[in-house]
Write a structure and sequence with these properties.
The chain is an alpha/beta fold. It has 13 helices and 17 strands. A hairpin with a 4-residue loop joins β2 and β3.
């Protein structure tokens, strides 16, 4: 297996360093803002080519060096055993006190998780190829027939709960057998997804209805990417009219700074934003009573987003400046002030029919 071979090469390289009297080292791509750029051609956030050496005989590096080797060795072991474990399991499996010291290998999981990402970036592999998974997050409903590790799942017959999107949605695990849909609607909030699912919006509009329950986890973003790339399905994103909803959309579209090394597999540059926007307040005669005043943190975030390259298109600049001008934001649930089914029967059908999207 290619991933196992790459992990073995790390160990052999360290062994060679020791045998030849060199300071043992591992090369890791620099995953900081200084090495992140926006690729205009592919419209994705990408990782640059800067490399840092993590060495053993350097007190600033030695702890992370040890942690990196521990995780790489454990990943190789579970691949050899042909088992899959969660990133939480990995943390507990490797946490212990070192010898007679009071030093632990890991104190918290927020130490081990970034190391996993370092190894992914260094080896150009996915976490799932290391046989590691995270908690599932997100749901899907629609006319989709899936082969999930040998089990056939009909996503049109999953009731009110929908199909739970797993951490690993790679083609060798999740195979699409049949899809009958015109587009994919990605909804920020679980409560709004439930409303649309109950109203059978996916059936009326012949779409796939998804939610990542907030910021979508990697599994959901990878699934969005696959549905667009493999079936050429348009991706529409529905989120709150606030800087956090807008940024969630940008992560689906361009990828994230933190996972820039995976943008080609997690980002979907052709995704479009269907709403909610502050301009909808007047367009749909939404009462000012259900708007929320921007706080200082909101305003700061909007100003930051205004300067992101991927928010430079004129429609986005107008929307963000209008948010600052009106000093208000809006939650998707505010549309219920127009009627419980307003979002299903009026708002979304009108936006889709008129192609009222932000790029």
């Amino acid at each position: 297996m290619e991933t196992e071979k790459k992990l073995k090469e790390i160990g052999l390289k360290i062994l060679d360093d020791i045998k030849n009297g060199r300071n043992p080292s591992i090369e890791i791509p620099v995953r900081t803002l200084s090495n992140i750029y926006f690729d205009e051609k592919f419209r994705l956030i990408k990782l640059g080519d800067k490399i840092a050496k993590r060495t053993y005989l350097n007190t600033a590096h030695s702890r992370k060096f040890m942690q990196t080797l521990l995780i790489a060795a454990e990943a190789k072991k579970i691949i050899e055993q042909n088992v899959t474990i969660s990133i939480r399991d990995l943390y507990y499996a490797l946490k212990h006190t070192i010898g007679d010291t009071k030093e632990n290998t890991f104190e918290e999981q927020n130490e081990s998780d970034p190391i996993i990402e370092d190894i992914e970036a260094a080896l150009n592999v996915l976490r799932e190829q290391l046989h590691l998974t995270a908690d599932r997050k997100g749901y899907l409903a629609g006319n989709v027939l899936i082969n999930d590790s040998g089990d056939i799942i009909d996503c049109s017959k999953m009731g009110s709960s929908g199909w739970a999107i797993p951490s690993n949605v790679e083609p060798e695990v999740i195979k699409f057998m049949e899809i009958n849909a015109d587009f994919v609607l990605v909804v920020e909030k679980d409560a709004v997804w439930q409303r649309l699912n109950e109203d059978k919006f996916w059936k009326k509009q012949n779409c796939i209805l998804m939610t990542g329950k907030g910021q979508p986890a990697r599994g959901a973003r990878r699934l969005i990417n696959r549905l667009h790339r493999e079936f050429n399905l348009p991706i529409y994103v529905l989120a709150d009219a606030d800087p956090w909803g807008y940024y969630m959309y940008s992560v689906i579209k361009q990828g994230s700074i933190n996972l820039s090394f995976l943008s080609d597999r997690l980002g979907t540059p052709d995704a479009k934003y269907i709403g909610l926007t502050t301009s909808d307040i007047n367009k749909f005669d939404i009462s000012k009573n259900v708007t929320i005043k921007l706080d200082e943190n909101d305003k700061k975030r909007v100003k930051e987003i205004l300067n992101y390259v991927w928010f430079k298109p004129k429609p986005w600049q107008m929307e963000l400046k209008n948010m600052l001008k009106t000093e208000c934001k809006l939650e998707l649930e505010a549309l219920s002030s127009k009627g419980i089914k307003f979002i299903s029967d009026v708002y979304l059908p009108q936006k889709i029919a008129n192609k009222e999207f932000l790029p």
